[in-house]
Write a structure and sequence with these properties.
By secondary structure, this protein is α/β, with parallel strands linked by helices. About 30% of the residues lie in helices and about 15% in strands.
Length: about 400
């Protein structure tokens, strides 16, 4: 299951300044070509050679299961038997930890979220990926390919793994009428004072920005990850106001389930897997994708620029998005798979429907996590946007 992907530490300032805009638009899924961003010059591997016999991975908890946590959950062992590549995986708790680990040169691949990917590319720690060497890439949903968090100027830097949206969950017995807008946790949060919950990460500032993008058009926000100082201050002020109503900020999904079960929380941001878990435990909750849309995450397996075992790494990239493996990890982790054929391989035949795997209109409402950087990713060239390091500082102030 998805455990913790907060980003609390300040990223290296130099990396953030290097990461110029990869481009964006009002449509969150569109990548207009990455104007202004010139990553270090590297060439993608042209062909596969002999496998090295091992591969070292950095992964979110639940992404590289080998049966040691649950004998029934194992897609690593079949990979090892098929390829001869023995897997060693390091579980990372945050995106910032992944960025730091990749700098060591000890790892071959990483399952990076959008709030880390651009940093890895800008620092030269991630290499371009030759998708022709990943046969299963052909079956990846088209709207996951060539996106602003995994592609720069038409060059792919990874293989899409899975995705999810940050939803609004509420206790159906305590919250009436049923909410349809994020205003329920911002403008109307005082009605549930002390029982509002929010995701514990600087990237949550984007949730406030997304709400303001629709509720206060005068601010001119076009992308919740591209905020000039005035826009950023407005989002921070909104979160400081919300803080008075927050009972708990969460990063561990089990803690949020527990809080809704006990009644300590009655409304707040969530993931589909948390909703499913809570409902399975008979907690009276529902969740919606609000009218303003939502933020979300899309994970990408990226190849280390200093990979010592690149051939085994490529084998892993292809394996983890193969229909059977991608189906297993999507069900275990609680996300929409990236491979369209994985939907036929899930044990729960409703899994892809529940997680909106093939629902492109749904994903067009989701603004996937993207590293906030100084050069505005909404295309503006006449101003400077607030970089991630400042988001981290502001988040500390917001929480008090």
């Amino acid at each position: 299951m998805r455990l913790n992907r907060t980003s609390r530490a300040v990223a290296a300032a130099g990396v953030l300044l290097l990461a110029a805009a990869c481009g964006s638009s009002d449509t969150p899924s569109k990548n207009p070509g990455g104007s202004g961003f010139e990553p270090p010059k590297m060439t993608a591997q042209k062909s596969l050679g002999a496998t090295e016999g091992k591969v070292n991975l950095i992964a979110w908890a639940g992404y590289a299961e080998d049966g040691s946590n649950d004998p029934e959950v194992d897609w690593v062992t079949p990979f090892e038997k098929k390829t001869g590549c023995q897997v060693t995986s390091k579980t990372a708790a945050t995106s910032d930890e992944m960025v730091s680990l990749m700098k060591t040169g000890e790892y071959d691949a990483v399952s990076a979220s959008g709030d880390a990917a651009l940093r890895l590319i800008a620092a030269g720690d991630a290499a371009p990926v030759n998708t022709d060497l990943v046969p299963n890439y052909a079956d990846v949903f088209p709207d996951l390919k060539n996106q602003q968090w995994n592609t720069v100027k038409g060059v792919s830097y990874g293989i899409p793994h899975g995705r999810g949206a940050n939803l609004l969950m509420y206790n159906t017995e305590k919250v009436t009428p049923a909410p349809t807008s994020w205003s329920a946790v911002f403008d109307k949060g005082s009605a549930y004072k002390g029982k509002v919950t929010a995701y514990d990460s600087p990237i949550y500032i984007a949730d406030a920005a997304l709400y303001l993008m629709k509720s206060d058009p005068s601010l001119g926000i076009k992308n919740p990850y591209a905020l000039d100082q005035k826009q950023f201050d407005a989002a921070v002020d909104l979160l400081k106001e919300q803080h008075a109503n927050i009972g708990e900020y969460w990063s561990d999904y089990l803690k949020e389930v527990s809080a809704f079960k006990s009644g300590d929380s009655v409304i707040g941001t969530t993931w589909q897997v948390i909703l499913n878990t809570a409902q399975a435990e008979k907690v009276p909750v529902k969740a919606v994708l609000p009218t303003e849309g939502a933020t979300g995450w899309s994970d990408t397996w990226m190849l280390a620029a200093k990979a010592k075992n690149p051939n085994c790494a490529y084998k892993w990239l292809d394996w983890i998005i193969s229909p059977e493996a991608n189906a297993q990890v999507a069900e275990y982790f609680g996300e929409a798979p990236s491979n369209a054929k994985a939907c036929e391989a899930t044990v729960d035949k409703n899994h892809c429907t529940t997680f909106h795997a093939a629902d492109e209109p749904y994903w067009k409402q989701v603004h996937f996590w993207t590293t906030p950087i100084a050069q505005c990713v909404d295309g503006r060239t006449d101003t400077t946007c607030v970089p991630y390091a400042k988001w981290v500082q502001a988040w500390t102030e917001i929480k008090g």
